[in-house]
Amino acid sequence: MSWQRKILRVDLSKGSAEIEPLNMEWAQQFLGERGLATKYLMESMDPKTDAMDPGNILIFATGPLTGTMSSTSGRYAVVTKGPLTNAIACSNSGGKFGAELKFAGYDLLIVQGRSPQPVYLHIDNDNVEILPADELWGTTVWHTEEWLKSRHQNPLLKVASIGVAGENGVRFACIVNDLHRAAGRSGVGAVMGSKNLKAVAVHGSVGVRVDDPQRFMQAVKDTKALLWDNAGRRELTELGTNAMIDAMQEFGGLPTRNFQEVQFDGYDKIDPNAMTTPNEHGHTNLITNKACFGCTIACGRIAHIDQEHFTIVNRKEYWHASGGLEYETAYAFGPVVGVDDIDALTFAGYLMNEHGMDPISFGVTLAAAMELYEMGVISDKDTDGVALNFGNAEALTVMAEKTGKFEGFGQILGLGSKRLCEKYGHPELFMGVKGQEFAGYDSRALQGMGLGYATSNRGACHLKHDTFAEDMEDQTGKGKAVPCKESQDRTAVVDSTGLCLFTTAAWGVEEFQQQIDAACEGDWSVERLAATGERIWNLERQFNLAAGLSKDDDTLPKRLLEVPAPSGTAKGKVNQLDMMLPEYYEARGWTADGVPTKETLQRLDLS
Amino acid sequence: MQKALLINPEKCTSCLQCELACSFEHEGVFNPAKSRIKVFEFEHGRRAIPYTCTQCDEAWCLHACPVEAITISPNTGAKEVNDNTCVGCKVCTIACPFGTVNYNADSGKVAKCDLCGGDPQCAEACPTGAITYVDANWTGYERMLESAVRAHPAA
Amino acid sequence: MNHIIIGAGPAGVIAAETLRRLDSDDSIIVIGDEDETPYSRMALPYLLAENIGEDGTHLRHGADHYAAHGIRVLKGRVTAVDTGAKNVTLEGGDALSYDKLLIATGSHASRPPIAGMDLPGIENCWTLADARRIAERAKPGAKVVLMGAGFIGCIVLEALAARNVELTVIEMADRMLARMMDDAGAEMIRRWCEQKGVRVLIGTRVESIDNGEVGLRINIGGGEPVAADLVVCATGVAPNVGFLEGSGINTDLGVIVDDHLQSNVADVYAAGDVAQGPDFSTGQSEIHAIQPTASEHARIAAANMAGRSNRFDGSLSMNVLNTLGLITSSFGLWDGIENGERATVLDKKHFKYLRLEFDGDILVGALAIGLTQHVGVLRGLIQTRVKLGHWKRELLRDPHQAMSAYLGRTQGDTSPLVGATRAA
Predict the structure, then answer these.
(1) Domain C325-410 class in CATH
(2) Measured between CB atoms, which of C347, C371, C420 is closest to A320?
(3) Fewest beta carbons within 10 Å, which of B19, B136, C118, C363?
């Protein structure tokens, strides 16, 4: 139990939907969600397949704890080959969709092939239909959700869908569920679009059972109390993730104007304090906080835009509340593009959700375009007449909408920063790894973050490891490799449970272990979980190596390796990846070329 | 002193732990589709309102039952459905003007909030205090009842 | 004070209990003409479906429920009411005097004037005795013809199907559930039944019934005769008012009552299926023949019999039905009003339908197929005349937002989930 022991395999080329038993041997090895989906991906496709080819596989995966009483049990992951990175993409999301998929009776939904016509998937427990999406194609995520609920006469339907960006292969298109939660990174929405799959709409009433209910409920109660009493949890609830912007400004790790700087003057116009302070019209950005399914934290922000703001003054359809700024959106529409207009940032966030795009990749891509514009490499002729200067709030929102609707220069921005910079002959301006743009942490100030970025299997990512404590403590490359490796393995476990990474503010592996062991068949010890995490990480690595990636892709842009931080606590420092990377490979049991050794694979049952 | 569920939507984060706990208590399975309490979300999450039976004095459901399957618990005052007696005719589901009695096709019976026999699990599970179980003379509860009576003037 | 209640159905029993609660010393006599513990006709289909035993049909379950409440349940049939002398005459000649009288005699099944309707093997499904006889004949595989596909017919249909009989339904009207469902909904239910293996003949008249080679032969207009081991007649019911002839109590279809459930004669009240009382939606005097109305009637009539003065706003016509697993409900003016507005959403493939009818921004009627969650709120919206305001537009777009609309309008002014409807 806790696993539904069922997967749904949909072949869009054949128009078939079949229910298969879950491979329990794999579940025991890879747990669920991220890990289990990676195993299925590896077994179901040739990693060399192009991400946009029908042969790519798109997996929606829940974890064994998804849909249970565990705090933050709403997570699901989307695992596929990413069009931004040509590496494995693993993007997870909260909201309510993931739990609903589980309640419908599935651990995994595997989508393969390509439909000849736009379609959507309607899942009502065992009743699965592939239905025409002609009326939805070309419309927004928000419209799609509304339309599906109405069409299927079910207000409880949960929807994950793509916008026009995903339909048109914007390389950082995401899959949005529940209006403003998203499997955001690595362009998983573009893969969905390439399959002509507009949406997955699901209603489930099967429910989830656990192996030892009594022990499980006790573990839930204990861990929930621990989470509730945790100071980090409290900060997330009260301030949201955007509390980080003040910390990063102070630390000098806040990437500004495409990483040319590490501190941003306007930070206090877009921080949590600014979100709760009325503006000159008496408008306050933040309305309330909201939770994902089963969450005891509720870090999500619900905000609204000043109706007098230039972005929406004549667009009444945006006068409603929706998802507000989180740290990564604040960073990606703020410092990295030099904009400090909170309403413009909030509106850009709306547009990302409405059209289905990753804010981080969009913001950092726009930042590169702005740098190119200020360098004179591109001009108004390229940008549809929009002055792409850093700090231009209108440029931010106009380009967000153009990209979302796949119009004009938005089509170029939709390539992502790497391809855009290459197109204009300045590959060095791409701020990311393996084709995926950086999150809001400058790795000259946070050394371990740089190692994590460089080695993350899905390209630059701040969520696949956690060396914060080490990075704050010491701003050299020393002693980062082992914590990076260990936290990567730990994170791989968390991402495979069905729970949210933010619980790690309060929980160690033990807290996850208690819940998993009570919920799942088999004896799940702390050691076994650690080994599971390492196994997952190495399997992802194997996918990437098989896809053609190598050691050369585990790197950082020259700007971070060679240009010293201009200010802040790391003033004068560069990232010491060259010191950390060999140590890291060694800690992983990989060769100097970053290939897992035979012994390592054997130890992890991966050979 | 009889107690009642007091719901404060301002505190609700829409996490649905109440629905999980309710379904687990009554069905032994985590399954919000079978929960007796439902959280309704409005305007992209601007508001969320947990909603269940107020155990109203009018007891429309009880009076509509043709076979006395709904009775008042002497301990909690809850209007409880007796599964052994309920024939599944669903008249209570249309009679309750609050829409808080639902038919469960799997069991062939109706389901409604029974206050978990005096230890409501939704209140227990709610992390923010949006759902609490308090003395019934609490003003908020009286307000709820008042509005219920105002809305449904009856015999 | 002597209260006499004629009729031991739900209205009679609820009225008796209400009287006892309000006035503890009065004498309360309930007179029923069936030799049964008071039971619910509504439960008979579930008895036939073998979901419950006979005791499961009882209105109350405590062995000494009536005695414990000081309610005397008397077996007898009232043949006359003398409103001048304030007494009722029982079959056999005994008379009982009353101070307050409640007529809660319900209705009886009526049969159409067709040749052969009195042959053995033709049953109503109205009383416990009927149910027993049906159960005897409706064995698995038996050929059964159900005459009438109205509300009661459809409930019986469900029960007969559960007995695994070979079922044919014959309905004279051109659709099933003519008084509870519109054309689109009725057609959906018919298709559902056919899909579940029940033969449904609509627009078909039974011309006569005679004995065939084996069992009964039902001769129908425009088709081959249908053979049956059992015919169940559910073509209609009529209020039991015959015994009131000459009493001075005004009757039309049933006993006409005012907004206090009192007849034209002082101290004589009526409740339940026999009472033609105010309808919430139309303001007219109507018979609903449904449990909630019976219950409301009984409680208000009893309160007024006990000396209160409770006014009745009128009962809302509503029904809920399970037809072989397809759940249907109707509320109020489901066919709409002149110049009203309508919101419909119809999904033939998945057998789902919802229709809302508005008068301005107030909901006045609804039909639903396949809706089981929060369905009662449709009643709430109609009966409390909630002004829907900006929610009406949302309901026109998606009628399934009814529960949200109710909350949005009654718990602070809250907008729809998705805000303004928009195209891409």
Answers:
(1) alpha beta
(2) C420
(3) C118
Whose CA is closest to C375, among B79, B90, B18?
A: B90
Is residue A556 a part of any domain in this protein? Answer: no
Domain B3-148: give its CATH code: 3.30.70.20
CATH number of C122-233: 3.50.50.60
Q: Where are the domains of chain B?
A: 3-148
Q: Tens of pLDDT along chain C (424 residues)?
A: 999 999 999 999 999 999 999 987 889 999 999 999 999 999 999 999 999 999 999 999 987 999 999 999 999 999 999 999 999 999 999 999 999 999 999 999 999 999 999 999 999 999 999 999 999 999 999 999 999 999 999 999 999 999 999 999 999 999 999 999 999 999 999 999 999 999 999 999 999 999 988 899 999 998 999 999 999 999 999 999 999 999 999 999 999 999 999 999 999 999 999 999 999 999 999 999 999 999 999 999 999 999 999 999 999 999 999 999 999 999 999 999 999 999 999 999 999 999 999 999 999 999 999 999 999 999 999 999 999 999 999 999 999 999 999 999 998 766 665 443 333 3
Domain segments of chain C: what residues?
Answer: 2-108+237-305, 122-233, 325-410
Both tokens of residue C282? 């139309």
Q: State residue A183 phi and psi, 5-degree precision.
A: -80, 90
Minimum CA–CA partner of A141 in chain C: C424
- Does the residue A20 lie in any domain? yes
Contacts of C313 (CB under 8 A, 6+ apart): B153, B154, C259, C278, C280
CA-to-CA distance for A321 and A289, rounded, in angstroms?
Answer: 12
Is B31 in Cβ contact with A103 (below 8 Å)? yes
Residue A163 · residue A173 · CB < 8 Å? yes
CA A558 to chain centre: 25
Expressed as residue numbers, the domain containing A193 is: 6-203
Please name the residue that has the structure tokens 């950005």.
A285
A469 by Cβ neighbours in 10 Å (0-12 / 13-18 / 19+) ranks as: exposed
| Domains C2-108+237-305 and C325-410 alike in fold | no
Cβ-defined contact of B94 to C60 (cutoff 8 Å): no
Contacts of C403 in chain A (CB under 8 A): 155
Residue B103: burial class (beta carbons within 10 Å; 0-12, 13-18, 19+): buried
Identify which of A143, A150, A152 has the shortest CB distance to residue C423: A143
> Which residues of A are less than 8 Å from C368 in CB distance?
none
Whether A287 is covered by a domain: the verdict is no
C2-108+237-305 sits in which CATH class? Answer: alpha beta
- A88-93 sheet: strands from edge to edge: A16-21, A6-11, A108-112, A57-62, A76-81, A88-93
pTM, 2 dp: 0.95
